[in-house]
Design a protein that fits this description.
By secondary structure, the chain is mostly helical. The chain is built from 25 helices and no strands.
Amino acid sequence: MRKRAQLLAVLFPCLWASWLFLSPAPATAQDRNTTDPTIPAEMTPSDPDIRTLLGIDNQSCKPNDTAWTEKLEKALEMADARGLIGDKALLEASLASTVLVQGNADQSFLLYRKALEDSITANRQVLRADILISLSSESQMKGDHQAATRLLTEALSLSEKNGNLYGKARALGELAKLKLPEGKNGDAENLLGHALDIDRLNGYKFEAVHLYYKGSYQGFVGDEDAAMQTLLEARTKAVAAKDTLTFVQAENAYAFGLVKKGKTDEALRQMDMFHRMEFAEFIPDVAIRTCLQSYLQLPIARLIWLEGFANVLEAANQKEREIEVWNEVFSTSQGIGLLAGESEAKEKVANLENQLKKNEDALRDYRTAADLYRKQGSDAFLDRVEISEAVLLVNVGRGKEALPIVEEITSYAKRLNLRQLEFRAYITLSGIYQRRENWTRHVARSKRRRPWFIRALSMKNSTIKPFTLPTSP
């Protein structure tokens, strides 16, 4: 039950940041009761006026809306004017997550960086670790998993040094999530097991999201029955914790699993119920159901559900309907200015159009996706989509148009010593130069500036032959 990584899911650590104190995550916007003994003291504001303004002890459902943003901004002004650096850092982190929910990723990460500086100044080590985890999402959005791992490792080290089990559990869970796409399943299993042990011993509500990660891991390694059971448990725990995002993601993954087990009709029935906001079957408690429904109306929550729905449709091989869903992801992301959602959606649509032999549509959408990734500064994703575009151009007999694209990628890969990307670029070039005489001339021109590739070819065979190009990215 292997499910694709998704860019919007990368934002998850940000939406969970400091969730038990205010509104950095969906749950905080809905449940701000700070009498819970599992909440670290420095994850709540100390100033009584700020606590009153934000209704810290009010357990009622408060969606993450404009009014809440204005309250946070006012509270931040109060903390700044009173010289309360610790509260200021906390409020900056909360506002960062709130802004992210509204779609402004750039402003969100600027606020997180300011919060990190203030948390260091105020010596709030628990908050500092929490913010480091949130900042790892920015690196993941850009495809830089090494930078994300460094930030998470720093958060883990800081938490262990200060005896901060709250931060340690979060960091372990997020590190485990990064290990899955790397194929380090054993590492992921150990990290998740440790995180869940801490959750259960301390009553942390992170247990729901960590169970979701565990269910994903079990699906990755082919233990589908266990995965389905774990995802159901994650969904139940998420409802109890009023954790909307984990509830949505656990249901998305569970429906995906239903399709893989041949229960496509049931999977689509459940996803259609989500589309109609009919949750009585999943959430019997009316008050909790109403609270979660209010959050699901926010664009970010809907985007995460739409991506899950697209995965279910992919598993069900309903490509035309999947295109419709990704187009809705694009339009919703565009409406809130979320480049990560726009670029991912266009790439997915282009891949589907490519598979359906809608070549001109695919080429148009690959170019749009490339432009969006370029604006984002996401070089890894830009290279991926440009390779896909170049391969399609070669396959439709327009290899000449692909040359400048592949040459640019080759230069970038060579400069940064990205051997795998460089090799993929040369595979694409080999398809462009399929004629023996053209390919030989290209190799002659390339010898001085691409010795690594020439060595790779010489290991294969003394006679240079073109590689077989895939028909789809």
